[in-house]
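Reply to dn_fold:

You asked what the input looked like. This is it:
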Amino acid sequence: MKLRELAEQFGLELRGDPEHQVDGVGTLEGATPSQISFLANPSYATQLEHTAAGAVVVAEANAAQCKGNALIADDPYLAYARIATLFDHRPAAPAGIHPSAVIDPQASIAENVSIGANVVVGAGSEIAEGCTLHPGVVVGTDCRLGPGCLLYPNVTLSHGVRLGARVILHPGVVIGADGFGIAFARTNDGGHWEKVPQLGGVSLGDDCEIGANSCIDRGAVEDTVLEEDVRVDNLVQIGHNVRIGAHTAIAGGAAIAGSARIGRYCLLAGRSGVNGHVTIADRTTIGADSNVMKDVTEPGTTWNSNLPAQPMVRWQRIFASLLRLEQLNKRIRTLEKAQAQTNTGNSEDND
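and this is what came back:
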């Protein structure tokens, strides 16, 4: 595409040659003259002078550093994301049902659906128009897939899962497995665990995307719910009866315990954790490795409780100090008590 076409299509200001053509995307460091790149992180601004990219999407503040063609955007990363969709050349799966697919006669399959090899669709399930089920997908009984859903290889939907329109599930995602519900039965010989039936389902709103090998458990009684446009990274665990508000994003390795309530427009960084039955207000940000153990009631706040990595010798000294904190606290309380008694005695003498 010509740069002027991109500028017109995406409402960007063009500085440079409007007839220059690009046919792909690349990094600032590796792009060729036929590719377009972007600058969103100021840490890479020094690469603008030497990039060979045919054009760079930049903010106005960095435009002067760009020696070649530039497309000026208020949000360069967002503009790049929209441009990059034009150069996504991955082939679409052909419409039709592969001969090896096993589809229950009581399932409902719309037109213009692509169902790959070894896909299984259970009784009572409905696959709406424009859905793509890649090889190895298993859709259990009584599931509902809205229009345009994309399920990559080896995705599993258990009984009663509901997907809105345009939901994307990456390889290995499991939705609707039983939640971790167990009750301990005490007996004379010690006792044992008994399973609590998980009788709810899972409901995902429109435009949700779930990363590879992430798991969303079914509810114990009511459904586990992700509202529209929730984005979940790889290897995330979402427990039973969790509810996640619209437009929330959750990075890789996060874990959310059962019955937690997460608001809208929240951000949960990698390896963060949320305790069971905790409520998190809208637009809350949880930092990497942070664990939320109590309710977050004030919207728009940022929480972070992780300890950054330290040189080993320094960390050993810090840890040794932590182990002495309890003893130190006792000494402080003793001194405060003695000081309070001294103050009381002086007050009586003055009287």
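DSSP finds four helices and 37 strands in the chain.
Hope that clears it up.
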